[in-house]
Design goal:
Largest sheet: 7 strands, mixed
CATH superfamily of the domain at 80-257: Type I PLP-dependent aspartate aminotransferase-like (Major domain)
CATH architecture of the domain at 80-257: 3-Layer(aba) Sandwich
Radius of gyration: 20 Å
Shape: globular
Number of helices: 10
CATH class of the domain at 80-257: Alpha Beta
Order of helices and strands: HHHEHEHEHEHEHEEHH
Structural class: alpha/beta
Strand order of the largest sheet: 1-7-6-5-4-2-3
Bound molecules: pyridoxal-5'-phosphate
Distance between the termini: 24 Å
Length: about 270
């Protein structure tokens, strides 16, 4: 395949600044099409989601299309796609929700390969309920996180394993499929941070076996927001805090308040 480099560069106005961009984890630059999508969504008739008026339907359509776009990208169920402001925010929310069912003596597993956003929320949630935090460590001679680093910590008390799909410092890719099959020998859930992995490869969440998988759009040309996907049946079982008049429907009940439709539109 031949790329017309100048044509692609023209899509990215920030490249006209004369700056050079070396900081991949700082986020990618954004094409003008994404900026246009934000402008279009925020200036067309829009109100809270519903199906009665045109402006309600516009918001509704944006959200539904977003769920399908995310589901297509990672082979997830669109009814289990949750919008979030950032991966950190989503993980904090889900750590609080999942920890509601943990009790003293339960165990969770985190890794020292992970970005802190897939460590601290779990550690703090575990501390609050008296759950034990087990650390899976990568091999400093190879940079790899062998599946055994996790499987040897698993037992009948393990409630959650939080692991990255790819480390953002070394690029290490743990074998998520193998980890998932080990985790699912127990009653633990597998929460996979796909922020670094998703921009670099095609993802099949169902084949990976992750119970939760998510990523952030700003890492690959999108706006500053994120998505998490899970089986809707699993989400139905989770008892998250929410406002009384807010819907109990899944996945809506995991998205708080009025959504930023313009960012959601630009994420599709
Ligand atoms: C692997 C990884 N996970 C999580 C995050 C945090 O994502 P967010 O900024 O959406 O909270 C980052 C950010 O660099 C990352 O590289």
């Amino acid at each position: 395949m031949i790329y017309d480099v100048q044509k692609i560069r023209n899509d990215f106005p920030s490249l006209d600044s004369g700056l050079a961009f070396f900081d991949g984890p700082g986020g990618s630059q954004v094409p003008v099409e994404v900026g246009n999508a934000i402008a279009e969504a925020i200036t067309k008739p829009i109100s809270n989601r519903n199906t009665v008026t045109q402006s309600e339907r516009n918001a509704e359509e944006i959200v539904i299309n977003f769920r399908h776009a995310v589901a297509d990208l990672i082979n997830a169920d669109p009814n289990g796609v949750v919008y979030g402001r950032s991966w950190t925010q989503i993980t904090y929310d889900f750590s609080r929700t999942l920890a509601k069912t943990w009790k003293p003596g339960d165990e969770i597993i985190v890794t020292n390969l992970d970005h802190d956003s897939n460590i601290r929320p779990w550690v703090q949630a575990a501390e609050r309920v008296g759950a034990v935090v087990r650390w899976a460590k990568f091999d400093i001679t190879t940079g790899e996180l062998p599946t055994s680093a996790i499987s040897e910590l698993l037992n009948e008390k393990t409630r959650l394993v939080a692991v990255t799909g790819a480390g953002n410092t070394l690029g290490t890719r743990p074998d998520i499929k193998a980890i998932a099959s080990e985790v699912h020998r127990t009653k633990a859930l597998l929460y996979v941070d796909g922020v670094h992995l998703t921009p670099h490869t095609s993802i099949d969440m169902k084949a990976l076996g992750a119970d939760f998988y998510g990523f952030s759009f700003y890492k690959f040309f999108g706006p500053h927001c994120s998505a998490l996907a899970a089986n809707p049946e699993l989400l139905e079982k989770l008892d998250n805090d929410k406002l009384l008049p807010s819907t109990s429907a899944v996945p809506e009940r995991f998205e708080f308040g009025t959504l930023p439709y313009e960012l959601i539109m630009a994420s599709r």
